[in-house]
C-alpha cells in the first residue's frame, strides 16, 4: 500500500453483528486463518499492519504510515450495534496507545460517513 492509498472504506451495514464484523475485517484485511474473531485478536492483527513479516494481515502499510478506516453508513452501525461500535473505537485507540507506549507511532485513524 502506498502513501497515497492509506484509506480503506468499509460499509457499516456489513459490520452489524459480531460474526459479520469479524468476517468483514478478516476479508478486507486478509487476517490469517487462525484469527480468533474477537477484539483481542483484532487488536493484535491491526497492531502489526506495518510489519508484513508478522503474517497478521495481507493488507500492509509502510512504516510510519497511518491507515484511515472510513466507515460509511456509520450511523446505522452505531445505532444497530452500539457495543460493537464502542468496541471498535476503544480497540482502535488501544492499538495506537500500545504502539506509542512501545516507542512507535499511531497506525490507525477512523473516519465516519453517513
From TrEMBL:
Domain Barstar (barnase inhibitor) residues, every copy: 7-91
SUPFAM superfamilies reported for this sequence: Barstar-related
InterPro entries: Barstar, Barstar-like_sf
Family, per entry: Belongs to the barstar family.
Protein's name in the database: Barnase inhibitor
Organism, scientific name: Ciceribacter ferrooxidans
Amino acid at each position: 500500500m502506498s502513501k497515497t492509498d492509506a484509506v480503506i472504506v468499509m460499509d457499516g451495514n456489513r459490520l452489524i453483528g459480531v460474526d459479520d464484523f469479524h468476517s468483514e475485517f478478516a476479508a478486507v484485511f486478509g487476517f490469517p486463518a487462525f484469527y480468533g474473531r474477537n477484539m483481542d485478536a483484532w487488536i493484535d492483527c491491526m497492531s502489526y499492519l506495518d510489519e508484513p513479516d508478522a503474517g497478521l494481515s495481507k493488507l500492509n502499510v509502510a512504516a510510519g504510515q497511518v491507515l484511515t478506516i472510513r466507515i460509511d453508513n456509520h450511523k446505522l452501525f452505531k445505532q444497530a450495534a452500539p457495543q460493537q461500535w464502542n468496541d471498535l473505537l476503544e480497540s482502535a485507540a488501544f492499538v495506537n496507545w500500545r504502539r506509542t507506549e512501545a516507542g512507535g507511532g499511531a497506525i490507525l485513524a477512523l473516519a465516519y460517513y453517513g
